Amino acid sequence: MAAPCEVRHGVGEWDSPDPEAEGDSRRPPTSLLSDAAVQSDTDTDAETEDSAPRERDTPEDIVLEAPANGLAFHPARNLVAAGDVDGDVFVFEYSCWEGENKELWSSGHHLRSCRDLAFSEDGQKLVTVSKDKAIHILDVEQGRLDKRISKAHNVAINSLLLVDEHLLATGDDSGRIRLWDQRKEGAIMDLRQHEDYIADMALDPAKKLLLTASGDGCLGVFNIKRHRFELLSEAQSGDLTSVKLMKRGKKVACGSSEGTIYLFNWNGFGATSDRFALKAESIDCIVPITDNLLCTGSTDGIIRAVNILPNRVVGSVGQHAGEPVEQLALSHCGKFLASSGHDHRLKFWDITQLRSVVVDDYRKRKKKGGHLQALSSKAWGMDDFFAGLKEEENTVPDPVEEESEDSD
Q1: Which residue intervals are annotated with compositional bias (Basic and acidic residues) in the record (predicted)?
Q2: What pLDDT is stored for residue 45 in this prediction?
Q3: 303-334 pLDDT, tens per residue?
């Protein structure tokens, strides 16, 4: 990527970092949870050997000073980035060995909450957006602020999507979409069709159509090749909080603030083709695991595995006990799902088993008082979730499908 540009003060223009204005970008080290026992000088050799680091199924939890809004895995390395409500950005190296999680660097350049972030395709840059209306591009190796757009939007930026090595899209709290080319000054597309905040964005494989989920309850479609607006769907009853492509791009799934997944046919964005109501207060984030299976994060703290067509809740992957799940991300190897919650923790879940789950069309009869099936050793059953008394088990039960209600 090119060297930092000259300092410019116009709206939406690239700036070079000003260390004196920004202040020290380094933050105090973040706490890393470890289950390893602390040994005293009087411990025996046997006790020391017993306490040696052991390999776990998943990395240990990472504890932040504030809840993280943004969460992203590196495309090739065992790195995870988090941006919190204080505006701080952290990059960690994670490991399945006890005590081996490491904070590589942190940045405090954002003046307000970091809303979203993403690694570049080559993994060399980390792009962040914030409530302070700025876009920052940081060097992954050193944590250095390479570029910024200090006034990218007139209101807080809420969503970010990297299109390719040069293009990125941003959505703000007013419903405005802007497309940026890092080789040029200013936005190359600036459209506002939504009436409320942009919650999430997705891109088709051809990188032609940009899909947007908005707080106005509509799915938006924008042609970023021709820089024009295409259409808005009919409004749903709640906010659309997330949007992802499923079924090899033939279906679009949107989460909502009312706990319903809305499905659209590709090229049939005007109205929903199906809807699927979960027993959840809301669906705040979605991550596809396979073409048919996705994971959802909700305000009730539960991470659910959900099959699309046939619509089934397969079970629980994990939880943030009593705290909303803010964001989900899938690791580059596809083995780990990471989640951030209002409990200030980044948690890791082993989802290897989910890739082998097959859901047939046979609709099982719903059991009264049925529980969510635990799909990992760290996932609790519903009774255990609310009681808070579950101990981690060493074995993972075979997944059992649980049917949720369809609203159609």
Answers
A1: 1-12
A2: 52
A3: 999 999 999 999 999 999 889 999 999 999 99
Q: Which of 82, 137, 128 is nearest to 105 (CA)?
A: 82
Residue 5 exposed, middle or buried by CB count within 10 Å (0-12, 13-18, 19+) = middle
Nearest to 223 by CA among 235, 207, 199, 201: 207
For residue 78, give both structure tokens.
């065992």
Q: What is the CA radius of gyration of the chain?
A: 22
- Other CB atoms within 10 A of residue 209 CB: 18
The 10s digit of each residue's pLDDT in 347-367 is: 999 999 898 888 876 666 555
Give, as one character, the DSSP assignment of residue 378.
Answer: T
- Give residue-wise pLDDT tens across range 47-89: 555 567 899 999 999 999 999 999 999 999 999 999 999 999 9
Picking from 43-52, 166-175, 189-198, 209-218, which range would have the lowest pLDDT averaged per residue? 43-52
What distance in Å separates the CA atoms of residue 408 and residue 405, rounded to the nearest whole number?
A: 9
Bridge partners, residue 187, by sequence? 180
Structure tokens at 245: 């492509």
Strand partners, 406: 276
Q: How far apart are CA 305 and CA 318, in angstroms?
A: 9
Alpha-carbon gap, residue 247 to 245, rounded angstroms: 7
Burial call 230-250: b when 16+ CB within 10 Å, e when fewer: eebbeebebbbbbbbbbbeee
Distance linking the first and last C-alpha atoms of the chain: 49
The answer to whether the CB of 234 falls within 8 A of the CB of 221 is no
Instruction: List the structure tokens of 30.
Output: 């973040």
Amino acid code (one letter) for 300:
D
For residue 386, name the pLDDT band (cuts at 50, 70, 90). Answer: very low
Q: Determine the pLDDT at residue 92.
A: 98
**One-letter amino acid for residue 267 of the chain:** N
Which residue shows structure tokens 């690791």? 331
Q: How many residues does the chain have?
A: 408
pTM over 0.85: no
Exposure string over 69-96, b if 16+ CB within 10 A, otherwise e: bbbbbbeeebbbbbbbbbbbbbbbebbb
**pLDDT greater than 80 at residue 19:** no
**Angle, vertex CA 67, rays to CA 64 and CA 70, nearest 5:** 100
